[in-house]
């Protein structure tokens, strides 16, 4: 069930969303120059990704921000930026450019700390925009619950289906929780709790934005 686009066009040019996407691409292009040297690439991830266990001896303040612009491979960055493209423009419409930027950054940081709650001693760097993008998706659920997500579904043959955004995003959130619990048992390389934390943050901020938009 892969999302292709939503049914609500953006009213303004999503400048900040484009800048975030472009910045992620630029950083990934730099990463590609390091792929020939595994030691250099690992050092890049370790220095600019967020390593939870570092907090106990030297809090990596810079990594609070840099971790959300680093990706571990082609599938990682393409998947993340595709979701940001679909959901980010409308949320930027609702919040305005500057507030959307602040929301995106704080959402990524909230998602990071939610991940740390479940992985406080992890020696592995957390990288990726998915925590911040999950916050965008949570806000989208609250602000545009009436939207529909046109998705590609594979069942014998691929076909398109319009899924109500409230159903699509709620099921996505539940899957992050279930996958997070499964990962706690088996261990995976995906930060599902960061996804869940970001989504919760987005829902909370989304309700606040909706209240200001429609009650005043």
Main CATH class: Mainly Alpha
- List the helices and strands in order: EHHHHHHEEHH
Architecture per CATH nomenclature, i.e. the level-2 architecture: Up-down Bundle
Low-confidence stretches: none
CATH superfamily: Rhomboid-like
What structural category characterises the helix and strand content?
mainly alpha
Largest sheet: 3 strands, antiparallel
**Number of E-state strands:** 3
Residues in helices, as a percent range: 55-70%
The overall average pLDDT, rounded, is 92
Task: Please provide a brief summary of the model.
With 216 residues, the chain is mainly alpha-helical.
Features:
single chain, mainly alpha, Rhomboid-like fold, three-stranded antiparallel beta sheet, 10% strand
Describe the 3D structure.
This protein has 216 residues and is mainly alpha-helical. It has a single domain (2-215), classed as Rhomboid-like fold (Up-down Bundle), CATH 1.20.1540.10. 64% of the residues lie in helices and 10% in strands. The protein contains eight helices and three strands, in the order E-H-H-H-H-H-H-E-E-H-H. The protein has helices at 15-32, 38-48, 61-66, 74-95, 97-118, 130-143, 165-186, 192-215; strands at 2-6, 148-155, 157-164. The chain has a three-stranded antiparallel β-sheet. Strand 2 and strand 3 (157-164) form a beta hairpin. Helix 5 packs across helix 6 and helix 6 (130-143) runs antiparallel to helix 7 (165-186). The longest helix has 24 residues, at 192-215. The protein is globular and about 45 Å long. The N and C termini lie far apart (38 Å). The relative contact order is 0.16. The mean pLDDT is 92. GO terms for molecular function: serine-type endopeptidase activity. This is Membrane associated serine protease, rhomboid family.
């Amino acid at each position: 069930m892969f999302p292709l686009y939503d049914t609500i066009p953006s009213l303004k040019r999503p400048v900040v969303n484009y800048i975030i996407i472009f910045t992620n691409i630029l950083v990934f292009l730099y990463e590609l120059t390091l792929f020939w040297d595994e030691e250099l690439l690992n050092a890049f991830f370790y220095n600019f990704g967020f390593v939870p266990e570092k907090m106990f001896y030297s809090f990596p303040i810079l990594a609070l921000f840099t971790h959300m612009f680093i990706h571990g491979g082609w599938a990682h960055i393409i998947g993340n930026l595709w979701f940001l493209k679909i959901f980010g423009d409308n949320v930027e419409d609702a919040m305005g450019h500057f507030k959307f930027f602040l929301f995106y950054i704080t959402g990524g940081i909230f998602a990071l700390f939610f991940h740390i709650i479940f992985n406080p001693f992890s020696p592995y760097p957390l990288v990726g925009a998915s925590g911040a993008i999950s916050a965008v998706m949570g806000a989208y659920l609250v602000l545009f619950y009436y939207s529909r997500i046109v998705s590609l579904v594979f069942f014998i043959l691929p076909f398109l289906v319009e899924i109500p955004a409230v159903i699509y995003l709620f099921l996505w959130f539940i899957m992050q929780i279930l996958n997070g619990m499964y990962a706690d048992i088996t261990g995976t390389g995906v930060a599902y709790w960061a996804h869940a934390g970001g989504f919760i943050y987005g829902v909370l901020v989304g309700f606040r934005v909706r209240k200001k938009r429609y009650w005043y």
